[in-house]
Amino acid sequence: MFPTPTPHISAKPGDFGKTVLMPGDPLRSKFIAENFLENPVLVNNVRGVQGYTGTYKGVKVSVMASGMGMPAIGIYSHELFNGYGVENIIRVGSAGAIQENIHLYDLVIAQGACTDSNFAAQFHLPGTFAPIASWELLKEAVKAHLTARGMECVDFGTFTADSCDYPDFARPAAEAVASGACERGIVMCTTGIGVSITANKVHGIRCALLSDPVSARLTREHNDANMMALGAGFVGELLALEIVDTFLDTPFSNGERHKRRIEKLMAVEQG
Questions:
Q1: Average pLDDT in the 34-43 region?
Q2: Do the beta carbons of residue 164 and residue 158 sit within 8 Å?
């Protein structure tokens, strides 16, 4: 932490929330504050770079302009992180598109951003390409992680990045678990939805679509889930591996109410 106010921000300590939205244009900062925050207060206006703090659904949130370009946002983000204890900065704004299916005023939530700017060179980063999660990469990461844990993995595919029909691969994986050939199963696709639906069509399978370790623990303790699904377009590698470890390491609670409910779940398959 360094002393505040900073050379570019006149706010006092504690003026900013832990999360700051950052549009480029100061007038957008003003618009967001006046239209989305409750009781917004102007906390910075150095060089006209307006910063406001208010509440959103009871949570303290700030919004401040970043100016144009990477050097500008580099300055403001550095001072917010290191001078004001900000934990999250969410860049919001407008951009062009090259995909024909993205239209004017569409809302896009970016998973990654890459640059060819030389600005990042000063930080001696190993590269400026920002890879985002894909099921191909995530599957290999999970397999390597399980192998490192001493577990044997059976890969039912797919083995290319070409478009495919997920039931062709989720079904044999689920059948291997149902038959006892495999103890547990992990399936994944971009969202995890299709493969989880497919797996649950196989008799004896209880497949949970997971995005956090708590759900992974609870589905093992309460549902005795024998398969899990991941949405590789939404869950990054580190989180995914934590979910996998939790799922594999958590035993069924064997509680009477949970056994009773599982019996009723399985009875649904009988019609």
A1: 97
A2: yes
Compute the chain's Rg from CA coordinates: 24
pLDDT of res. 1: 67
Three-state helix/strand/coil letters over the chain:
CCCCCCCCCCCCCCCCCCEEEECCCHHHHHHHHHHHCEEEEEEECHHHCCEEEEEECCEEEEEECCCCCHHHHHHHHHHHHHHCCCCEEEECCCCCCCCCCCCCCCCCCCCCCCCCCHHHHHHCCCCCCCCCCCHHHHHHHHHHHHHHCCCCCCCCCCCCCCCCCCHHHHHHHHHHHHHCCCCCEEEEECCCHHHHHHHHCCCCCCEEECCCHHHHHHHHHHHCCCEEEEECCCCCHHHHHHHHHHHHHCCCCCCHHHHHHHHHHHHHHHC
- pLDDT, one tens digit per residue, over 81-138 is 999 999 999 999 888 888 788 888 888 877 677 777 788 788 787 777 666 667 788 8
Instruction: State what percent of residues in the chain have pLDDT above 70.
Output: 97
Predicted local confidence at residue 132, as pLDDT: 67
Structural domains in the chain, CATH included, are 19-123 (3.40.50.1580), 135-270 (3.40.1400.10)
pLDDT at 224 over 70: yes
One-letter identity of residue 264? K
